[in-house]
Design goal:
This protein has 10 helices and 23 strands. By secondary structure, the protein is an alpha/beta fold. The chain has a domain of 233 residues: FAD/NAD(P)-binding domain. Strands 5, 7, 8, 9, 16, 17, 18, 19 and 20 form a 9-stranded mixed β-sheet that branches. The longest helix has 27 residues. It binds flavin-adenine dinucleotide (FAD). Keywords: Oxidoreductase.
Length: 421
């Protein structure tokens, strides 16, 4: 059931903090409802996780991060910096609290509940992209027909097939076929003979994330929105009839504020009762020449390495989940670990011609669900915590939140995402 929310009259103006995929998609959708928006960004659009990610729009794989297998990975990774999931051994009470809460959600029963929530969202994720394309966002999304999940053997593939079937049982719409190594190589000649089995996954899309977010920023500006770059927000206050947003460039006033600062969400929203912590799950990426690399989105699932064609003769290679502070610099060992894991399956890539080495923080919540909706203030909203899937779900959550703000009635899909849960 939709629930009533927000101030008594429809807001006419909004300040959105953060110009990543989520903040900009929210701003765009607020404009759609006639709200005047100012986006405030401490660096520039796509300065955070929304730049170097893998750009998969894959509703079939948009699953909750907490899962029973995550526990096994997490424990093993405590001792290995080369592991695709890495928790640096250091005393950090905040991280310990996050992990404790995360662990509680890693049960099969809880997974089914979380997956059902994702299933509902995923059904509309690509429509939200079509709405952007139909109304001024110039950068395209591309069909991945099919995208490939590659494995050394059918036995290695079995876990993924089980996961896809579990997702289907939870309500996901998934079209896939298991194929053998030769068929996979016929589709994708970059794969080596080490690949003995694959899954061809249909109906998914992908994009160049940096280019897309810049196009979204352009569309927001073209519709009359302001984007204040190199402007940091230090506080948001509810003044009763409006909000005051304190920035490094002075104070802004508006009817409502939306905080969409990705992995940096906590500090600005804690004063409004948001207690769910957002932890940086740092991922790494770089790009390689397209020659000898996959021509379609390809996931080496056991190695947890993703390849995505970016256009312009480059392919992005991404991976790793490192639970560490967002601001830390690139750790070269992680890049080497990605190369070492992927090279045997993709031997034609010129791994030494890497450029654009990058690390960025996935904004992870302990239950794997984003935080989308109102806070303790009826004028301060949150949109963030999308973890591994802020690109796939950003436009949809922006649309749902804008509807809640502009109409005062929250769509039913937002109920499990309530920031005060
Ligand atoms: C390696 C990797 C691969 C990924 N692959 C995929 C994928 O294939 N598909 C998918 O859907 N998702 C993927 N993701 C996840 C996705 O990138 C994130 O979920 C998404 O980008 C989060 O967007 P956001 O707008 O919430 O955060 P961000 O993009 O991090 O944006 C937050 C913005 O807020 C700004 N900011 C922070 N604090 C302040 C402040 N105080 N004042 C002003 N501005 C501030 C930051 O500078 C930043 O620009 C991947 C992530 C990684 C790391």
């Amino acid at each position: 059931m939709p629930t009533a929310t927000g101030p008594s009259r429809p807001p006419r103006s909004a300040v959105v903090v953060g110009a990543g995929m989520v903040g900009l998609a929210t701003a765009w959708s607020l404009q759609h409802h006639g709200v005047e928006v100012t986006v405030v960004e401490r660096r520039h659009p796509a300065a955070g996780a929304s730049w170097g990610n893998a750009g998969w729009l894959s509703p079939a794989l948009t699953l909750p991060l907490p899962e029973p297998a995550a526990l096994r990975y997490g424990l093993r990774s405590l001792v290995s910096p080369e592991s695709p999931v890495y928790i640096p051994p250091r005393p950090d009470p905040r991280l310990a609290r996050f992990l404790l809460s995360f662990t509680r959600h890693c049960t099969p029963r809880r997974w089914r509940v979380l997956a059902a929530t994702f299933a509902t969202l995923n059904r509309h994720a690509l429509d939200a992209y079509d709405a952007l394309a139909a109304d001024g966002v110039a950068e395209p999304t591309r069909p991945a027909e099919p995208c490939l999940l590659a494995f050394r053997s059918a036995a290695e593939r079995a876990r993924m097939v089980e996961e896809l079937e579990d997702a289907r049982a939870a309500g996901f719409e998934i079209a896939y076929e298991p194929i053998d190594g030769d068929r996979a190589r016929a589709l994708e000649p970059a794969l080596s003979d080490d690949v003995g089995a694959a899954v061809a996954l249909h109906g998914q899309r992908y994009l160049n994330p940096g280019d897309f977010v810049h196009a979204l920023a352009d569309a927001v500006r073209e519709r009359g929105g302001r984007i204040l770059e190199r402007t940091e927000v230090s506080a948001v206050r509810d003044l009763g009839r409006e909000v005051a947003v304190t920035t490094s460039g002075g104070q802004l006033r508006a009817d409502v504020a939306v905080v969409a600062t990705g992995a940096w969400l906590d500090a600005l929203v804690r004063p409004f009762g948001v207690r769910v912590p957002v932890q940086a799950g740092r991922g790494y990426s770089f790009s390689v020449p397209a020659e000898g690399a996959p021509t379609r989105p390809t996931y080496l699932a056991a190695q947890k390495v993703v390849c995505t064609p970016l256009g312009k003769g480059r392919v992005r290679v991404a991976g790793m989940m490192e639970l560490a502070p967002a601001e830390r610099p690139v750790d070269p060992r992680r890049i080497q670990a990605i190369v070492a894991a992927a090279r045997p399956l993709l031997p034609g890539i010129d791994w030494d011609a890497r450029t654009d080495t990058w690390v960025g923080p996935r904004p992870c919540t302990p239950d794997g669900l984003p935080l989308v909706g109102p806070t303790g203030s009826p004028r301060v909203y949150v949109n963030g915590g999308h973890g591994m899937w802020g690109v796939a779900l950003g436009p949809l959550s922006g649309r749902l939140l804008a509807e809640a703000i502009a109409t005062g009635t929250a769509p039913a899909e937002l109920a499990p995402l309530h920031p005060l849960r």
